[in-house]
Design goal:
Blueprint lengths: L1 E3 L2 H17 L12 H18 L5 E5 L3 H10 L6 E6 L4 E6 L2 E6 H6 L3 E5 L5 H13 L21 H8 L7 E3 L14 E4 L8 H4 L5
Parallel strand pairs: 1-7
Antiparallel strand pairs: 2-3, 2-6, 3-4, 4-5, 6-8
Helix pairs in contact: 1-3, 5-6
């Protein structure tokens, strides 16, 4: 049985986030390329690569530029990602739980502004992945699990990685789901079939064709 560590690290998330958000909403750790042309080129590169790689039911992880993203990645360890969603190939959207609740947005919008993108393909059949998409889609409109995000679960709501683990019935598949589930924990559900690397890291030649 695979275990995902939970409760104590998220108490640190709650306390640290509260302190940091008072002073600044932007990341202290990562930053976008200063040149707008280069930043835009990375956004187009990530979007096109992800669109070529992703399949129905894949888990799409991303690392953002907010202080909360810093806290999540520092406290949880593992891959440098801070958010998770499930890709629906029928609509070309990522179903996700954000502070306004469970919603969906176009893959391009989800990927374009990320510092890093990873795509994980759960080791399940296509029909089982489609079932996970349906389960997640049925929850669109459900509220965000703010208390669950700090270790006190609200069974009627979801935070991002909780939604993904629930949609994939992770507990039924042998994962010990206790406390909170970090976005980076979800890489254990299957192989990583795409990793963009960090925005700004690639040689200029890799992004030059995306300059406009």
């Amino acid at each position: 049985m695979t275990s995902w560590p939970g409760f104590s690290r998220w108490l640190v998330v709650a306390a640290t986030t509260a302190l940091l958000m008072v002073s600044c909403s932007r990341s202290y750790i990562v930053s976008r390329p200063e040149e707008q042309k280069l930043d835009d080129a990375y956004g187009q590169l990530f979007t096109r690569e992800a669109a070529r790689a992703v399949q129905d039911g894949d888990i799409v992880l991303r690392r953002g530029y907010a202080v909360l993203s810093d806290v999540i990645t520092l406290v949880t360890g593992g891959p440098d990602v801070s958010h998770a969603g499930i890709y629906d190939a029928t609509t070309g959207t990522v179903i996700e739980a954000v502070d306004s609740g469970v919603t969906e947005r176009a893959l391009a919008d989800y990927v374009r502004g990320a510092h890093r993108v990873m795509i994980v393909r759960p080791e399940l059949s296509a029909s089982e992945r489609r079932d996970a998409v349906r389960r997640a889609r049925d929850e669109i409109g459900t509220g965000f699990d703010f208390s669950g995000f700090v270790g006190i679960d609200d069974p009627e709501r979801f935070y991002c990685s909780e939604l993904v683990a629930w949609a994939y019935r992770a507990q039924d598949r042998g994962y010990e789901v206790s406390g909170l589930i970090a976005p980076g924990d979800l890489v254990t559900l299957g192989p990583t079939i795409y990793d963009s690397g960090e925005r700004g890291e690639r040689p200029l030649v890799a992004v030059a064709t995306y300059w406009r």
